Amino acid sequence: MVATGSGTKSGKAFYVTTPIYYVNDAPHLGHAYTTVAGDVLTRWHRQRGERVWFLTGTDEHGQKVLRTAESKGVSPQEWCDKLVEEAWKPLWQHLEIANDDFIRTTEKRHTDRVREFVQDLYDKGEIYKGGYEGPYCVGCEEYKLPGELLEGTGENAGKQLCPIHKRPVEILKEENYFFRLSEYADKLLAHYEANPGFIQPESARNEVLSFVRQGLQDLSISRSTFDWGVPVPWDDDHVIYVWVDALLNYATAVGYNQNQETFDASFPADVHLLGKDILRFHAVIWPALLMANGLPLPGRIVANGWLLVGGEKMSKSNLTGISPRQITSHFGVDAFRWYLLRAIAYGQDGSFSWEDLAARYTSELANDYGNLASRVAAMVGKYFDGVLPDASADGDAEQAVHDGLARAVAEADRKIGDDVEFQAGLLAIFEFIKQVNGYISEQEPWKVAKDDSPEARARLATILYTAAESLRAVAVLLHPFMPASSQKLWESLGAEPALGPLADQRVQEAGQWGRLPAGSTVTKGAALFPRLEEQPGA
Questions:
Q1: Where is the Methionyl/Leucyl tRNA synthetase domain (predicted)?
Q2: pTM confidence score
Q3: 108 pLDDT higher than 50
């Protein structure tokens, strides 16, 4: 992982979380999707000058992890340690994920606080002992309602299947401790009504509303049929239900019951990012637990859709899991990060396609964006010996570019920073890139350069300054999505000596025209996005 500094504003941090991921296997493309989204969102807010805290991590307890470890012939802890250090953390580092913390649910800082939280609920009378029998999906670590189950076919004929994992459920009967979740239905509905943006997108909100309006059952918050988990503090024969354990990471990671100052400066999360298959845990169980313990609720719960391959949800159990490194080895990390948020509207299902990625890479990254950067640098080098000229002949064409940039910055900032709509924000940025390409085509600087008159030289200087200054702004706007290529462009424009590091640039300043000083040294380096046939291994 890449540790980063906080922003400059005082007060509560802008706190963003991903789910903590099960370590029963290595991460796949679906895990990367949510994590890249969190990284882009927090990078954007850092570039707003805000103090930011970005949390991710791993969920290491529960029956699913236990069974996986047993099948490998190792202890659950050994399995978790291996996967975290050899698969999860290295991938996030590879993908340039700038998380501030990485929480593991086997860490003492977490397990001690979980026991304290549950003990508080028990002391308040929110937990009681009872029995339960019902269909249980180990993959989801959740009891299922009979109406949710699918009828099996083929080798699973006569069996009932989990609708998500498409595997037979098990009928479990055990004596457990229960949280009085049923008593929170009206309180949850009141909160949803008072805070219509609490659950996003609208389809996710509607699903949760429908579910809660049907009435809630009390939640079994312990298990007694296995022991891989956090022991219930008042009964060592039980371990705390893995989802209660897992959800509490959002509080334990920022100092719950350990460092009140740190906790107050971060909690609650401003945005929980998660896959829609775990929406109910976050939008129903999590706020109910917080209400029961008198803690503030998160700002927003944003559910992304499923990445589909061949019409199937991407997961190991459905054999559609794709390793992100398979993609980055061919297209590069920046293109991978960009495509995940460019191709699919966040919150909707969408299909991953190698062919679509290749087509968009060529059209939008290599041709529209990369070629623009190369052409501008080459012309500054050819006509002004690599020294950025001053703009002294602005006209209506330049004013149109200035106005276009202002629109792009405002739209991108609203869509990405406020609405968590990455695709719409990227479209605004790339619409501006297309505008600049059109501007150069219309102004034809290669023709203007043939005239040696002072007026023509001033006009040529203005055209190239306008294009370079536009690219300066684009480097800032695309930095959260594509940090490596944006840094290359920043260096190519000679921006760092005058303006400072790219990571320190503010979104608000991106639209302020004229920040790139004349006299900067512009260099033409390697293509930002090489033609795919030129890439090793292509």
A1: 14-376
A2: 0.90
A3: yes
